[in-house]
Amino acid sequence: MIRFDNVGLRYGSGPEILRDVTFQVFPGSFHFLTGPSGAGKTTLLRLLFMSLKPSRGLIFLFGKNAGDLTPAARAELRRRIGMVFQDFRLLDHLTTWENVALPLRVMGKKEQDYSEDVTDLIRWVGLGDRIHAYPEILSGGEKQRAAIARAVIARPELLLADEPTGNVDQAIGNRLLRLFVELNRLGTSVIIATHDHALMDQLPAPRLMLYDGHLQTRAAR
Question: 197 exposed, middle or buried (CB, 10 Å; 0-12, 13-18, 19+)?
Fold first, then answer.
């Protein structure tokens, strides 16, 4: 599903943030992406989401060379990816329900076919009393849960989550992890970027570890 071959990335003429990154992710797998703050976890996720292009090296997603894709082809490929951003990126003019339902609407699904699923997921992540609220009145943790629900509602083939439990308490964090595990059980490949070792210790999943721009892989426990 994912292949990086000697990928490097630098901004402008500055030093490389990522250097010679090579790894593979297979369909149906679950990985944690970890490393100290500033190691490049968010940058690596942005490369996977194709919102950044590498300075060198090759990236293959779903069997396609990302560097050869037209903007339209990249947009089409992104529809197969669910992304949880650190800054949430909820649309301010949409309610919680409308934000979560947005991927299904973009896919051309009929509201009557997904309305109950959207409502159930919003309640499951603990936002039942915020279902008609707009982002401006949501707390950071509530925005995060809404963003996660939006990312998983369409059961993407690949889920990328950047510190998805960073603004929630442990009980909600554990519930969200169960959601990711269930999505993975249904066939979605999952990559969670986190520095929360307590969260990672709950699953015997392999870890992609970034240090000083280089990536190492540690097998599942």
Answer: exposed
Residue 27: count other Cβ atoms within 10 Å of its Cβ: 12
Residue 126 makes CB contacts below 8 A (sequence gap 6+) with 145, 172, 175
User: What is the CATH architecture of 2-218?
Assistant: 3-Layer(aba) Sandwich (3.40)
The DSSP call for residue 202 is T
- DSSP letter, residue 201: T
CA distance 192 to 164: 8
Residue 52: Cβ within 10 Å count: 17
> Across residues 12-25, what is the average pLDDT?
92
Residue type, 185: R
Are 161 and 151 within 8 A, CB to CB?
A: yes
Dihedral angle, C-alpha 154, 7, 42, 191, nearest 10 °: 40
Sheet holding 64-65, edge to edge: 16-25, 2-10, 56-61, 64-65
Domain ranges of the chain: 2-218
Q: Do residues 215 and 209 touch, judged by C-beta distance below 8 A?
A: yes
182-197 confidence digits (pLDDT tens): 999 999 999 999 988 8
Write down the pTM of the prediction: 0.92
How far is it, in rounded angstroms, from Cα 149 to Cα 208? 24
* Closest of 150, 152, 148 to residue 162, by C-alpha: 148
